[in-house]
Amino acid sequence: MIEPIKPPRSLLSAAGKAIGDYGMIRDGDRVLLGLSGGKDSLSLLHVLLDLQKKAPIKFTLAACTIDPQSPDYDPSPLKDYVPTLGIPYFVERFPILEQAKKSMTKDSFCAFCSRMRRGMLYGCARREGYNVLALAQHLDDAAETFLMSAFFGGKLRTMKANYVNDAGDIRIIRPLIYARERQTAAFAKNAPLPVIQENCPACFGMPTERMHMKTVLAQLERENSAVLSNMLTAMRPLMGERVEKPRGSKKSLTTESTENAE
Predict the structure, then answer these.
(1) Where are the alpha helices (H) located in 173-251, listed in sequence order?
(2) Rounded CA gap, 23 and 47, in Å?
(3) How confident is the model at residue 120 (pLDDT cuts 50, 70, 90)?
(4) Which residues pair with 89 in a beta bridge?
(5) Contact between residue 68 and residue 201 where contact means Cβ atoms under 8 Å apart
(6) Alpha-carbon span 92 to 182, nearest angstrom
(7) For 9-248, CATH number?
(8) Which of 4, 185, 148 is nearest to 87 (CA)?
(9) How does DSSP classify residue 85?
(10) Are 47 and 12 in contact, with CB atoms under 8 Å apart?
(11) How far, in Å, CA of 190 to CA of 133, rounded?
(12) How far apart are CA 71 and CA 52, in angstroms?
């Protein structure tokens, strides 16, 4: 076993506040992290490991990687790295790209792939007995999703911070929903973390609506540094109910407890 790398205080604080605001992690939860090997999911892995060690509640942590069996994606560095951190690690394999060519109709490949990956993560969580699925999308992802939904779908929607799946048996949480992409990028580079670059099997180098939104937001932020902060305020009603205090008999991991844990 090796000692996990401690994330910077700013990243821990952003995750701690989000977890506390939305009551994401509760005493006794069994949390499965969707680990692609990108900078965001590896950063979240170390954030959760740090919180698990110091927070006043007890929760179990494991990680699962979806291997789409594409020549462009090699998860082997994760297979050597994650078990050394002392948590269970699962790899689910399925030829997603080949299946997309056979089954995809109106959806984009990204939408098809996302649904396939999510379904496989649910399957792993159920099989291994985990009730919470942690995903590593951050504030930049939420803002891009909001703009894409408004501009191209005519709807006010974004990523939820904490919700239950349609089957009602797994809660999905996004502890990095207040964090910026530049925070995970800096942590991954400075640590350094064993980041797997370009882990989408079909979209390398292809212009996408999301990339366009990323460019638009970057330009707006150069002109007004408060753009993402203002967007977070605007998106809060769409991200789920925030909790003032832990409810029920179980304790939850609150903002105060994560800050004190440092």
Answers:
(1) 181-190, 209-223, 227-235
(2) 16
(3) very high
(4) 63
(5) yes
(6) 29
(7) 3.40.50.620
(8) 4
(9) G
(10) yes
(11) 27
(12) 35
pLDDT tens, 165-221? 999 999 999 999 999 999 999 999 999 999 997 655 455 444 467 888 999 999 999
Side chain identity, residue 229: S
Token pair belonging to 53: 């060690």
Sequence-distant (6+) residues with CB within 8 A of 153 are none
The mean pLDDT of the chain is: 88
Q: What are phi and psi of 188, to 5 degrees?
A: -60, -40
Pairing of strands 60-67, 171-173: unpaired
Which among 207, 198, 209 has a CA at the least distance from the CA of 144? 209
Residue by residue, DSSP assigns 106-165 as SS-HHHHHHHHHHHHHHHHHHHHT--EEE----HHHHHHHHHHIIIIISS-----SEEE-
Domain layout of the chain by residue ranges: 9-248
